[in-house]
Amino acid sequence: GVIRDMAEPLAQLPPFPFSERGLQLHTQVLAFMREHVHPACQLYDAQLAELRRTGQQWIVIPPIIEALKVEARARGLWNLFLPSCDNFTHECSLSNLDYAPLAELMGSVPWASEVFNCSAPDTGNMEVLARYGTKEQQQQWLQPLLDGRIRSAFCMTEPDVASSDATNMQLCVSRSESGDGYILDGRKWWASGALDPRCELLVVMGRLEDA
């Protein structure tokens, strides 16, 4: 009940010049939240509580998440965050202005953004792969992330520096002697997403050896 009440004010869009597509998606996401996500909150809590009771909270995802992902994707409410760029074309490709109120709607329930495959840290990692990844990297990592089949982690925080300032990074990146890979020399902790059982990719922030 509390979550539903918090979400209701978000139904009123601010007076900005949204695109027709943005307005249409706002109506659809709002309806999906009301009809599917909000009614599932108690079930999610019960499933998570049972997983915690049995010590499986880092091994198994509450099943309602995957069920809602299937429904959201079937309605085209999927990867709404991702813009097109020179290296990658995305059919939805909303502006930040159009996407912001959708993110507000999803944010009314802490876990809802994953239902639409719009959950951090995957969102930022997918944008990095879309903008800068090779075709091979996009095929191996980006497509499974876009499909919601795997998840990823973002490794920025380090124990000995104020890591919110990226210029403080101490982890050093250097070419391997063979030249076909890189050596990461340093320590990370609090890596967002790393404990998710579906995590198959780590995006690591570091500095070049001579930087």
From TrEMBL:
InterPro entries linked to this entry: Acyl-CoA_dehydrogenase (IPR050741), Acyl-CoA_Oxase/DH_mid-dom (IPR006091), Acyl-CoA_Oxase/DH_mid-dom_sf (IPR046373), AcylCoA_DH/ox_N_sf (IPR037069), AcylCoA_DH/oxidase_NM_dom_sf (IPR009100)
Domain called Acyl-CoA oxidase/dehydrogenase middle: residue spans: 153-207
Keyword vocabulary terms for this entry: Oxidoreductase
GO biological process terms on file: fatty acid beta-oxidation using acyl-CoA dehydrogenase
Keyword Membrane in annotation: no
One annotated Gene Ontology cellular component of this protein: cytoplasm
Molecular function via GO: acyl-CoA dehydrogenase activity; flavin adenine dinucleotide binding
UniProt xrefs under Pfam families: Acyl-CoA_dh_M
PANTHER family documented for this protein: ACYL-COA DEHYDROGENASE FAMILY MEMBER 11, MEDIUM-CHAIN SPECIFIC ACYL-COA DEHYDROGENASE, MITOCHONDRIAL-RELATED
Name under which the protein is recorded: Acyl-CoA oxidase/dehydrogenase middle domain-containing protein
Organism listed in the record: Coccolithus braarudii
